[in-house]
Amino acid sequence: MKQIEDPSGLKTGLCVQDISSPSTDVWSQILSFNSYVGKVPKLKTCETYETKDEGEFKRIKVKMVIGVLPGYSYTCFYDHKYYKDKNSLTWSLDYEEYSDFDDVQGHWHVEDLEERRCRVFYAADLKMRGKVPGPVMNILSKKALREATGWVKRESEKATKARREGPAIPGGALPQQ
């Protein structure tokens, strides 16, 4: 995990994480935007408002509300492009909508490894509008960077484990032979 800030206030975060799940389980988590609330820390709302197959990629537009601290929440509209053949998802703000951030760009990339594992690469650039209190910026940048890949690892591995163990049998009874 690494964070870089340039003099203009642009913050860039990079993170690489190995996950004990196949890439299909990881992509299932990343692309299930409407189920982010409760999985992604500090996220209050996540609603897909447009999906469109653009040939080379699938466009997914999502509204998110992030509750950082009491009195500080940010509403943003994102334009995601999922390139299935390239194992990549890029995003920026949806510039047709007003967002509380000045600019955001990011990228998820997932590579398969041996033994049903994968490596996840995450990068995001964030530029705020105006002056932002230090504690708020810390949460939006450093803490969010750790949490961005942390929830994907946790939820992907949980889904993989559940799939491998199979459905629970009501009452604990053994299946009939």
TrEMBL record:
Source organism superkingdom: Eukaryota
Region of interest (Disordered), ranges: 152-177
**Skewed-composition ranges (Basic and acidic residues):** 152-166
Chain ranges of the Coenzyme Q-binding protein COQ10 START domain: 22-147
Under Gene3D superfamilies, the record lists: 3.30.530.20
> Matching InterPro entries, A to Z?
COQ10_START, START-like_dom_sf
- Any matching Pfam family: Polyketide_cyc
UniProt-recorded name of the protein: Coenzyme Q-binding protein COQ10 START domain-containing protein
Specify the species: Triparma laevis f. inornata
What are the top taxonomic ranks of the organism? Eukaryota, Sar, Stramenopiles, Ochrophyta, Bolidophyceae
